[in-house]
Design goal:
This protein is mainly beta. The chain has one domain (10-264). The chain has 4 helices and 16 strands. It is globular, with a radius of gyration of 22 Å.
Length: 287
């Protein structure tokens, strides 16, 4: 991928994930071609309906480190297979942008000129300021979910304690990710398709040449389209938590599923984390 910023890839990944998480409560996948969950088509006779990876989050990069799937894990699968993944209807396009980013023109125009050599599938224009901003564009995304009924059952499963669960995953054949370079800039991003003569509208088949076009970008960007491929640029993570007890409450807390927190303090514009308070147990050395 293009990479020209004078900072580490680790910081860029962490900053992008942090900005998207702050704006949407969802996790960005810095490597969308890397599937978040293994295929479980053989379990449910489906080609792409899968969700349910669990694992931990890398504290330095924010990458979700998969340890297994609820649909194949020996201890969890007998329960999880009673709750197959659900698929929400596909949408034309989905976009997320962080704070300090202004959308000035976003639209889709699929098949507007049925017999044209090129159709404008999607176009967008974004204004960035001196703070880093992030955007994520997905075309034809679909949402795959682990049913809530399983989550209620899963509170009793020891193997999921202390783990993060990808209970919602966005899949798409086409995505664009951008992290700005602390520069006041206006970025234009469009998706175009070359349509064979006589084909009514834009059909995502191997016969169609689809590509992203961008102008004004100076930051980090990743984009892809591939017929038949499924990318996972976005997902949700939940973890089992026990609410803290109040001082006057001796009743044990009830465990619940809550959004997984980012494993770092507030980040500066270059993705560096503020130092944690650490007394290094100095009080233990006092006589």
């Amino acid at each position: 991928m293009p990479f020209s910023l004078p900072w580490t890839k680790e910081n860029a990944q962490r900053k992008y994930i942090d900005l998207i998480k702050e704006a949407s409560a969802k996790w960005a996948n810095w490597d969308p071609p890397k599937r978040i969950q293994p295929r479980v088509a053989t379990l449910f006779n489906r080609s792409t309906k899968q969700a349910g990876d669990f694992g931990t989050v890398n504290k330095k990069t924010g990458e979700f480190l998969v340890e297994g799937s609820i649909y194949t894990h020996q201890e969890i699968a007998p329960i999880a297979r009673q709750y197959p993944p659900l698929e929400a209807p596909e949408t034309d396009q989905y976009q997320i942008h962080s704070y300090h980013v202004q959308s000035t023109d976003v639209g889709a125009d699929v098949g507007a000129t049925a017999h044209a050599a090129q159709d404008l599938v999607f176009r967008s224009r974004w204004k960035f300021n001196a703070k880093r901003g992030a955007i994520l564009l997905m075309f034809r995304p679909r949402l795959i979910c682990v049913p809530d009924a399983f989550l209620n059952e899963a509170l009793k499963i020891p193997a999921l304690k202390g783990k993060a669960l990808a209970d919602r995953v966005y899949e798409c054949p086409c995505f664009y990710m951008y992290l700005s370079n602390k520069t006041r800039e206006t970025v234009t991003i469009s998706l175009r398709a070359t349509v064979p003569s006589g084909v009514p509208g834009v059909a995502f088949t191997p016969a169609v040449n689809v590509g992203w076009l961008a102008d004004g970008c100076t930051g980090v960007r990743q984009q892809a389209y591939r017929p038949g491929a499924i990318y996972t640029p976005l997902f949700c993570l939940r973890s089992i938590r026990t609410p803290l007890l109040r001082r006057d409450d001796s009743t044990p807390g009830t465990e619940t599923w809550e959004e997984t927190d980012v494993p770092w303090n507030d980040l500066d514009e270059d993705g560096a984390s503020e130092p944690e308070d650490d007394d290094d147990d100095d009080d233990d050395d006092d006589d």
